[in-house]
Design brief:
Oligomer: single chain
Helix content: 25-40%
Number of helices: 4
Strand order of the largest sheet: 1-4-5
Structural class: alpha+beta
Radius of gyration: 19 Å
């Protein structure tokens, strides 16, 4: 979408897309990734989130692996605890156990409603600023201020990554 926006000269007031939170987004779009917003369930550098500190440690280069690892570990942990609570792999018992389960994961508190919709883990909003992901919402977790509106293509400045 970003490449098309640039090609046709379109700049919405803001641009938020799930893919913009992925590390690959910056590599694929380059400088044009600037100011894009995305949702992220796991940001090891965010402030004040309930994520266990052991998941925030490590070199910045390990960030992508930590994000993938956090998602995989959380999924495995939830399934393990649900199977233990159900005492079987029978679908009805397992579903009931999953609906009742509340545990801490690297993504935050896992909790679902009666329809199975996640209500415990709250994503943060990241924005690409100077070639890097910055948490801009919620305020207690923010590592940077929002940069809005999404600038027109002819108003953009080229920035060297920090």
């Amino acid at each position: 979408m970003v490449k098309t926006f640039k090609r046709i000269g379109y700049a919405p007031w803001l641009f938020l897309a799930q893919g913009a939170a992925e590390p690959e987004f910056i590599r694929r779009v380059g400088q044009d990734a600037e100011h894009a917003l995305g949702l992220s369930a796991y940001e090891p550098n965010a402030k004040g989130l309930p994520t266990p500190s052991s998941w925030r440690r490590g070199a910045p280069a390990a960030g992508r692996a930590r994000r993938a690892g956090a998602h995989a570990y959380a999924a495995g942990l939830v399934l393990q605890r649900a199977v233990q609570a159900a005492g079987a792999l029978e679908p009805g018992r397992l579903r009931a156990a999953l609906l009742a389960l509340e545990i801490e994961t690297p993504l935050g508190r896992h909790r679902v409603d009666a329809d199975g919709v996640q209500t415990g883990v709250k994503p943060v909003v990241v924005q690409i600023q100077r070639g890097r992901r910055a948490v801009v919402w919620p305020p207690p977790a923010a590592t940077a201020e929002w940069q809005l509106p999404y600038p027109r293509w002819d108003e953009r400045q080229v920035h060297a990554p920090q």
